[in-house]
TrEMBL record:
Full protein name: Cell shape determination protein CcmA
Stretches the record annotates as Disordered: 115-134
Biased composition (Basic and acidic residues): 118-134
Native source organism of the sequence: Candidatus Falkowbacteria bacterium RIFOXYA2_FULL_38_12
Pfam families, per the entry: Bactofilin
Lineage: Bacteria, Candidatus Falkowiibacteriota
Family the entry assigns: Belongs to the bactofilin family.
UniProt cross-references to InterPro entries, sorted A to Z: BacA/B (IPR007607)
């Protein structure tokens, strides 16, 4: 996912939340997103999401693909592929098609994997909230 983009040239990042930035509320994008700071509320992108090593996310997260090196406290829905590095910490449930976990990554929650993939579209927010209440 991200390695392929880097080999082709500069990856297309539409939104960067820098290390000194704190976002509160509902945050959504249709393009690739990189988070190095903190986000609380909800975080959605229809494309790729990259969470930096010092990032702190206290939010429910939706994305097509995700590369996580930081911390997420909330439920995560990824449409295709999620990669957790050795510094990644997830405190919440994950729903994803493909999960890659490096040794040392922490997952404290339930992981549901589906060969059909998971939709990361806006309309699925109600379904995720229903899943959280179960």
């Amino acid at each position: 996912m991200f390695k392929e983009q880097n080999q082709k040239g500069v990856e297309e990042i539409e939104t960067i939340i820098g290390p000194s930035v704190n976002v509160e509320g509902d945050f959504s994008s249709k393009g690739n997103m990189t988070v190095q700071g903190s986000v609380s509320g909800t975080l959605k992108t229809e494309r790729d999401l990259k969470i930096g090593v010092d990032a702190k996310i206290t939010a429910d997260v939706w994305a097509a693909n995700a590369f996580v090196a930081g911390e997420i406290r909330g439920n995560v829905r990824i449409g295709e592929r999620m990669e957790l590095t050795e510094t990644a910490k997830i405190f919440g449930d994950i729903e994803v098609k493909t999960l890659i976990m490096a040794p040392g990554a922490i997952l404290n929650g339930r992981c549901t994997m589906s060969h059909e993939g998971v939709s990361s579209r806006e309309g699925d927010e109600d379904n995720l909230k229903k899943d959280i209440k179960k």
